[in-house]
Design goal:
Blueprint (H helix, E strand, L loop, with lengths): L1 H10 L2 H21 L3 H22 L3 H21 L1 H14 L15 H17 L4 E5 L6 H4 L3 E6 L2 H7 L10 E5 L2 E7 L15 H12 L3 E5 L6 E5 L2 E3 L4 H12 L1 H13 L7 H10 L2
Parallel strand pairs: 1-3
Antiparallel strand pairs: 1-5, 2-4, 3-4, 5-6, 6-7
Helix pairs in contact: 3-4, 6-8, 6-10, 10-11, 10-12
Length: about 290
């Protein structure tokens, strides 16, 4: 056995080591990507079926079953991109957002100013008091939301408390759906959003909260939800939903996520803090969870 490993290592070159390392990183990235999703369960089920089938065919010498398993592997490899399309799309979007080559200075979408955040928070406070008909505000970040804008009605108006309240006024033609905010503009209203199927602990929530979770799972948008029944404000970001967010905490989180100056200062602070994760989105959600 020792001689076998010695012979194996003697034949390895730096190219082989690099090849093995790249494949290992790809497999690790796929496992991290699908962890906690439906794809995770699909992979586990597929692995169990293949292992059990190979074991049975080997023990009992089942030629036909072994042939079927061997020839089904190419078909499975072709089907995997179709089955895992949402996960692959999320991975490519993450790479696009993370790439410094793609996100060159000046190419990012203009972020909301402090005035815009104040207008949003004031409108949310009024909607929270009125409780009807509820509201769904999607704040675009790095990932473009043009596909969802196409499902709604174009507005292209400057963000203001008056505009937002008029959109979500009871029986308004535009109140049923979401509003998409890009920079300091309300781009569209009455937008249709994808519903999240991984509701989990939020199973009791309604369609509006599921839509907020669905958009936050597929993009890096920040979604503010005002409940029609309770008037409570929730915040969805990266597949996480924080409920009962106060006015001050909502303003703090939106400024942290949208203001470049605050973003850089927060990054410097997290680097100096012990045990800091360095993730601005995670820090923002944690700050919303704290009273």
């Amino acid at each position: 056995m020792i001689e076998f490993f010695q012979a194996l290592f003697n034949q390895l070159t730096w190219v082989d080591v690099l090849d093995i390392l790249i494949v290992t990183l790809i497999i690790y990235a796929i496992l991290v990507l699908v962890r906690g999703t439906r794809a995770d369960q699909i992979l586990q089920g597929l692995a169990i079926v293949l292992l059990v089938g190979i074991l049975i065919s080997s023990v009992f010498h089942l030629t036909l079953l072994g042939w079927l398993l061997r020839n089904s592997i190419p078909a499975i490899l072709i089907a995997l991109p179709v089955i895992f399309q949402p996960e692959l799309r999320r991975l490519l979007e993450y790479l696009g957002r993370s790439s410094r080559v793609v996100n060159l200075p000046g190419t990012n979408i203009t972020r909301s100013t402090e005035r815009t955040v104040d207008e949003i928070c004031q409108a949310v406070a009024v909607l929270k008091e009125r409780r009807h008909p509820g509201a769904l505000l999607c704040i675009e970040r790095s990932t473009g939301l043009q596909d969802y804008v196409a499902t709604g009605v174009r507005v292209e108006g400057l963000v203001s408390i008056e505009l937002l309240l008029s959109i979500f006024y009871p029986n308004s033609p535009l109140h049923d759906g979401a509003v998409i905010i890009r920079g300091d503009r309300v781009v569209a209203a009455r937008v249709v959003l994808p519903l999240s199927e991984a509701v989990g602990e939020h199973a009791e929530l309604g369609t509006r909260h599921r839509a907020a979770l669905g958009l936050s799972e597929q993009t890096d948008a920040v979604v503010v939800v005002v409940s029609e029944q309770t008037g409570k404000v929730s915040l969805a970001e990266h597949g996480r939903l924080v409920q009962n967010v106060s006015d001050e905490r909502l303003r703090r989180v939106l400024l942290l996520l949208r203001d470049p100056g605050r973003r850089m200062r927060r990054r410097a602070a997290t680097r100096l803090a012990p045990g800091a994760t360095g993730s601005l989105a995670r820090d923002a959600i944690k700050s919303a969870e704290r009273p």
